[in-house]
Amino acid sequence: QYGTQFGGLINFKLKEANPNKKIETTIRRTLGSFGLDNTFLSIGGTKSKWSYYGYFNYKFGEDWRPNSEFDVIHGHINIKNQINEKTSIGFEFTKMYYLAHQPGGLTDDNFFRYPDTSLRNRNWFKVDWNLANLNFDYEINSNTKINSRLFGLSAYRKSLGNLDDINRIDDPLENRNLIVGNFRNIGNETRLVHLYEIKEKPQAFVVGFRLYKGYNNTRQGDANNSNNPDFYFVEDSDYTNCQGLDESDYSFPSFNSSVFAEHIFNLTENISITPGFRYEYISTSSLGSTRIINADMAGNLLDDTTIIYEDRGRNRDFLIGGIGLNYKVAKDIEIYSNFSQNYRSINFSDMQIKNQNFKINPNLQDERGYNSDLGIRGNIKSKLYFDASIYTLFYKNRIGSQLKKEKNSNRIEQTFQYRTNIAQSRTIGFEMMVEADWINILSKQSNENKLTTFVNFSYNDANYIQSNVSAYEYNKVELVPPIVFKTGISLSKKIYSISYQFSYTDAHFSDATNAVITENAAIGVINAYYTMDLSAKINFKSFQLETGINNLSNEIYFTRRATGYPGPGILPSPPRNYYLGLQFKF
Question: How big is the chain by its Cα radius of gyration, in Å?
Fold first, then answer.
């Protein structure tokens, strides 16, 4: 019922109003390293049939590298009215705006020698996100409920700067590149849940539909050559000293409809089976133009190419299914197994961005596949919690990145990342989590004090198989660390708590060719790294004081190689940093 995506999802739930207070206010102020200043304010409560909750967050700072200051505003409001015992209606609105100066990426050599430097001072990123949601809940009877959500988005993002390889100097006299994306969409998702019994055993099913209409527009071209966040395109009149122009303007209308159903069959008190299906219809289109202006080395206009129009569309529909099995070994322990077919469609808007470090196959195909798992989870007397599973994830027409070389118009050979359908891929893995409350384990009586430890471990064997290109056969799938390990310890006693966490991520590749190092650093190995974090908290009546140290051992590491914004190149992660926060709740 939640979609066609591979591998599952995380369901984020925003905080709602306190049902026991007419008004509840929380104020938080956090200061940290590199000029971090974060202010948070929330107000919520319940009165009669009305409930409300809203928050405002303003954060700014400079980060640890030059040219990396940021300014972020984030707000949310949720208002709900219980019209009667059976009917409620609610409205939500989320606003996010931020402006970020981007220091760009680094080459491998610069990262290992000078990780705190910046090779770009003219790159900026700007986002304005507005999301509205209207919720309707109706209880037909005690066993049947309907939920309907009408949602809409109005947003834009603007990327400004130099997209050239990071190993090339940013000429301050050259115009920057500007990419502007505007997003407008509206949709509705409605589901009906029904509970009933068969031979005194509870059963449940859900059935629903989703309708979505989207309209995206992307424009890319030249901007001015200043250092400022001036997000506008250079007009024809500005080409008195022409540098050339490669500008595009495309619209991407899309439509999606789906119906879905799932049913929980409780066969016995210990065994349940949950089959489900989803039917999808997807329509994507692109309509736009490209304009190319060429100039000589002196800046004289040579030609202004006739505008090239492109109009293409693609419609497809498909049916996917899945099934889950649960078996209760004991009251709080169960064995589970799931199988689900998956589908991910390509998006024309992802294929239109022009970047010399990154190109996309114009004949890119949709991805299909499945994922399955088998595991055991539960807890022992609410003192020891565990979850362990083995799984497999299979892709057909897996979209990946390969390293290619090609000569540009100036006959200079360039290395770039080429995104295409690489091959089939198969990931086999194991993951487990164990958390223990040692004071309650060792004590015969319940204790409000806690000493907890946790271990989270995953192993992934991800390979390309049955590739049409022998060079990729049995290569490792990019961006899949073979080992991820996390552990930590936390002590809480009455008004205070202190926690320590250690995290390790194994080395892995950033493209399907498994390149180790390249000149432009947009592709290459992501080295193994570990981090340690320490945090503490003290509560006193309405006040809460928090402090912490991130990257305690001051490791120099990175988790990403960017092909475009906010790079290109290696994006170094922050060194040791501190924060101190004060919260007042009343």
Answer: 27
pTM for the full model? 0.89
How far are the Cα atoms of 79, 82, 137 from residue 191, in angstroms, in the given order? Answer: 21, 19, 10
Q: Which residues pair with 127 in a beta bridge?
A: 98, 157
pLDDT band, residue 428 (cuts 50/70/90):
very high
Residue type, 3: G
pLDDT at 346 (0 to 100): 83
Residue 462: beta bridge partners?
A: 427
In one-letter notation, the amino acid at residue 278 is R
Paired sense of beta strands 201-222 and 245-266, if any? antiparallel
Mean pLDDT of 248-257: 92
Report the pLDDT averaged over residues 58-77.
Answer: 96
DSSP E strands, 103-164: 123-141, 144-161
H or E element: which one contains 440?
Answer: helix 438-442
- The average confidence (pLDDT) of the chain is 91
* Pairwise CA distance, residues 360 & 402, whole Å: 10
Q: How many CB atoms lie within 10 A of CB 173?
A: 7
CA distances from 49 to 46, 87, 136 (A): 8, 11, 15
What the block records as the tokens of 387 is: 């979850």
Upper half-sphere CA count for residue 211 (Cβ side, 13 Å): 6
Distance CA 302, CA 214 (A): 39
What's the CA gap between 169 and 426, in Å, rounded?
41
